[in-house]
């Protein structure tokens, strides 16, 4: 009653044993593919973590640098500016990690929150009544009167270019893990599991427990079993090329590190622009939002304090170097995995599974 290991000679196998062998080859094949995938997956997961840590380190540095701008140059509004600054960098972090948001909305929301503070603390420091309605009016007016000139739009442009590649790379790495996980659990067809039993276990039914499959025979069986997986070859090569393109984009002129570390300067230029145009802004705001309450003997506008140049912190230099090294290491490794899916049958037939140095091997029917 054997279905797979039929042979002219007497046999020690039963149909039940054949069923056990089929379960065994399915389990073994999944384990073999998992073992092959492990190094590749480990490398990608490791780099997802490393990239995210480097991003977070750069973001923390840029956030601290921007906060220190308010503490050193714009002290009257430093405390209230802390929350908008924190929100801006949280939004940037979420964008890099793939959240449904845009750089433009994050930056413009930041400047919307900043304008009421700049207006009431720097341009008109005598304002005492900054009610919710008046604050909201200032926020909405910001879009129309454009108090920060072209600096807010420039910041959107610079950050969008550099953060786009980081966002895409983050998503691409996650996609790579998804693809690898899917191939691990690709179901074996009935024909495939029968072919694997015939190759690996049918010799046992003849008492030939030490004989192993011939190399060519193993390759034919594995290629047939893994046809759907090896079809990923062209897409995988394209995927590696895309990763290479994205890492090069990150390291190119739209450098993530430079864009993030330059946020404080863009914010400073924007605030200076608003202060220099204070009288015109006040006249427009008075027409749109009305005149707020003033302290008696209205304080003169706060002097524009030139911000001290913040020296490049050691943490930034280290994060910058770390990110560059990780990029190079990662893409070098991934390029070596370009033929991963094309050569998967060869790799599964390597090692202990097949007979390489002996003159005899199993060809599916007999010892040859």
From TrEMBL:
Protein's cellular compartments: Cell membrane
InterPro entries xref list: Glypican, Glypican_CS
UniProt membrane topology term: Lipid-anchor; GPI-anchor
Any GO CC annotation of this UniProt entry: extracellular region
One Pfam family per UniProt: Glypican
Domain of life: Eukaryota
Purpose of the protein: Cell surface proteoglycan.
Protein family membership: Belongs to the glypican family.
Name under which the protein is recorded: GPC5 protein
Organism ancestry: Eukaryota, Metazoa, Chordata, Craniata, Vertebrata
Gene behind the chain: Gpc5
